[in-house]
Write a structure and sequence with these properties.
Elements: E1 7-14, E2 17-29, E3 32-35, E4 39-40, E5 54-60, E6 66-78, E7 82-87, E8 95-96, E9 105-106, E10 110-115, E11 123-131, E12 134-138, E13 150-158, E14 164-179, E15 182-191, H1 194-227
Antiparallel strand pairs: 1-2, 1-5, 2-3, 2-4, 3-7, 5-6, 6-7, 6-8, 9-11, 10-11, 10-13, 11-12, 12-15, 13-14, 14-15
Length: 230
């Protein structure tokens, strides 16, 4: 499943704060994973960890689904370049955290839209939802996009770390629908750099975690309120 050259994303809990890192697999041997020293997602500095430090690790599989497993630091390998050694998943036991090709999440991200053929004036708007495969966006009243029409989108994706990532992609319009009186258009990405698609998937994963935490918090608050009436 996981292979040499794969990019991995690492999360650790430090004094109740979640810290995120990114690295690449350099080698695999006897169930251990050898990686480049992880880079902090917020300050871009390499991280150094003691033996036994625990992580949740996720990566994008060959089927473009996200796979997660738990691991811990086993030490440092002194090879041609120093490598951090992680414990690999036992018996290839991964958690698949999505059932379709890409996780689609509701999010209001800034997006600029340009017609490839000059059929409409450029406009800026907000997404309605987003995935690694495409997006839905709020359409202006005077926009007349038709099915199959190609256009370019420029997305601005704000991460929790404070970093804003900018994505350029070519998309194809699929259809529009009206939601509470507003036109929402859906489109599929037709040309996008793989690295940019992975950034979108990472953004969607982060948004999904935020949504899940809010739902759990709301559920817990509801339980507390019910207990008050017992």
């Amino acid at each position: 499943m996981i292979k040499i050259g794969s990019t991995i994303h690492m999360e650790m809990t430090d004094k109740k704060d979640i810290r995120r890192f990114r690295s690449k697999i350099l080698d695999m041997e006897s169930g251990d994973i050898f990686i480049d020293f992880p880079v902090d997602g917020q300050n871009r500095k390499p991280g150094f960890f003691i033996e036994g430090t625990q992580f949740k690790i996720w990566f994008i599989g060959g089927d473009q689904a996200i796979y997660l497993f738990e691991s811990e630091v086993k030490g440092i390998a002194d090879r041609q370049i120093p490598m951090l050694v992680l414990k690999g998943p036992i018996d290839n036991n991964y958690i698949r955290i999505q059932r379709r090709q890409y996780v689609r999440v509701e999010t209001m991200a800034d997006v600029a839209v340009y017609s490839e053929g000059g059929k409409f004036a450029p406009f800026t708007t907000l997404t309605s939802d987003l995935s690694g495969g495409g997006l839905s966006l709020h359409l202006p009243d005077d926009c007349s996009l038709g099915g199959g029409e190609r256009f370019k989108v420029y997305l601005a994706l704000p991460f929790q770390s404070g970093e804003t990532v900018y994505i350029e992609a070519a998309a194809e319009f699929i259809r529009s629908k009206f939601v509470t009186g507003r036109a929402i258009g859906s489109a599929e990405f037709k040309k996008i750099e793989d690295a940019d698609r992975q950034k979108i998937v990472r953004y969607c994963y982060e948004r999904q975690l935020i949504i899940n935490k809010k739902e759990k918090k709301h559920h817990s608050a509801g339980q507390c309120n019910l207990n008050n009436y017992k």
